[in-house]
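Aim 2 progress. For Lipoprotein Spr, the working sequence is reproduced below.
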Amino acid sequence: MIKKFLFSTLIALCSITALNAQTAKETNKTEDPDNLASQYFGQVMGVAVDATSNIKLYKFIYEWIGTPYSFGGNTKKGIDCSAFTKAIYDKVFNTTLLRSSRDIFSMVDPLSKEELKEGDLVFFKIKSSRITHIGIYLGDDRFAHASSSRGVVISNLTEPYYARYFYRGGRVIESAKKQLIEE
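Predicted structure tokens for this construct:
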């Protein structure tokens, strides 16, 4: 009888321990920054984050969402579109870009909207004949950028404003990366 009681107690303790371990694992999963970034983009922003996505890219953007816009700024107190793009390429892709959106365009192979892939650049000519704005393409027509009116946000290329001023997409050319390293 005592053996049966001890065995039942042991089974109960093992079950409780396993349940606690599972709960802790689930709690850690929701508190994990990578998972939080994936949840944010997937559920809140409607961006499809999957196994092929660059989680480092999404985590970086997630940490900057809501940062105010500041022309010439390059910190979390305020940043402009080209500094935001430059920071992403530096930290996520280990690639140095030039400072202005026009100069960055000189480093890319131009692409149409249909050719864009996650991590490509999107360029805009907003009320100008010159490139005035830049962002990072995320897929599903979404892109991250530092908006002059809303700060760092995710927007959609199909929104009338961005569709109107979209100029081209671009993918950084390998030779442009090497040239910067050599200089």
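The chain has one domain: 53-182. This observation will guide construct design in the next reporting period.
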